[in-house]
Amino acid sequence: MTSVRSRWLAAAVILLCAAAGGTAARERAQAQDSQAKPTADLPGKAFFEQRCSTCHGLDAGGAMGPNIQGIPFRLGADTVKGIIKNGMGGGGMPAFAGQLDDAQIQQIVDYLLTLQHKDTAAITGDPSKGKDIYDASGCASCHTIAGQGGDAGPELTTVGSLRGAGYLKNAVLYPGTDLPQEHIFVESGGQLDYLFIHLVTKDGKAYDGTRAAEDSFRIVIKDAKGNFLSFRKADLRALDKEPGKSVMPSVKGKLTDDQVNDLVAYLASLKVAQ
Q1: Does the domain made of 196-241 have the CATH classification 3.30.1330.10?
Q2: 6-30 burial, b if ≥16 CB within 10 A, otherwise e?
Q3: Residue 187 and residue 191: Cα distance in Å, rounded?
């Protein structure tokens, strides 16, 4: 039984790792290649306007669907290819497999890499104070900057080049509110899942994490430290799925408004070296 459980958990971990698809360096290189051409010359622009603009707007800034400007930077290029190809559960995002081939989907992703989210929020804090707050708040236990820190959360080495001040402020105050809540099937195989799970075992122990895998009998979560934990549903007293929450703790109520602005200023200062 232990061997079966170990193989099941290993398979779930492999799926999740495979789903991570595409490194930040590769995505930056793709963006540079795409941005070397005038946007109007990119074939993906025409495909986007034909297939995607009704829901996401001609500039990908949002209409019936969400703003997806620069979304490959956030979710990864392979993840976005998987979303376009396979859609998302719940009937919101349709699957375009059969309507677009792999090359056309890649061209749409290349086009999206040229569109930076128009974040007009002002940076009002002090980056040097913000670094002290980052260190004192324990952010480095989950996030890596220039090779230093943990790997449970996203790398932040160049986050200021990819995210505006408004996004960063929302992320530290309300983590999890802007993440997909359905399975995302990725081009490289497997799936990603951002759904927050709170569960309690029959002996009263509580665990929080992001869903890594689930079937009718078992669920695997990834906790805030990056550990994968597997549970038999029959052994649980409670299994609560809480969209909009995150394993990342909010700084709301823990930092003053000025401290939040300083932290945002520091994160916004982390950019690609020129």
Answers
A1: no
A2: eebbeebbebbeebebbeeeebbeb
A3: 9
Residue 229 phi/psi, 5-degree rounding, is -120, 130
**Six-digit token pair at 53?**
């603009």
In this structure, which topology does domain 2-118 adopt according to CATH? Cytochrome Bc1 Complex; Chain D, domain 2 (1.10.760)
The proportion of the chain whose per-residue pLDDT surpasses 70, expressed as a percent, equals 73
- Number of neighbouring beta carbons within 10 Å of residue 4: 8
* Residue 23 backbone class (left: φ over 0; alpha: ψ -120 to 50; beta: rest): beta
Q: Which of 201, 130, 195 has its CA nearest to residue 160?
A: 130
Q: What is the per-residue DSSP string for 52-72?
A: THHHH-TTSS-SSS---TTHH
Paired tokens of 85: 């190809």
E strand residue ranges, 19-170: 144-145, 148-149
Start and end residues for every CATH 1.10.760.10 domain found in the chain: 2-118
Q: Which of the 8 DSSP states describes residue 141?
A: G
Q: Cα dist. 63→57, 100, 163 in Å?
A: 5, 22, 21
228, 13 contact by CB (below 8 A): yes
pTM attached to this predicted model: 0.55
Spatial neighbors of 252 by CB under 8 A, at least 6 apart, are 173, 174
197 is written with which tokens? 């799970």
pLDDT in tens, 130-155: 999 999 999 998 899 999 998 877 88
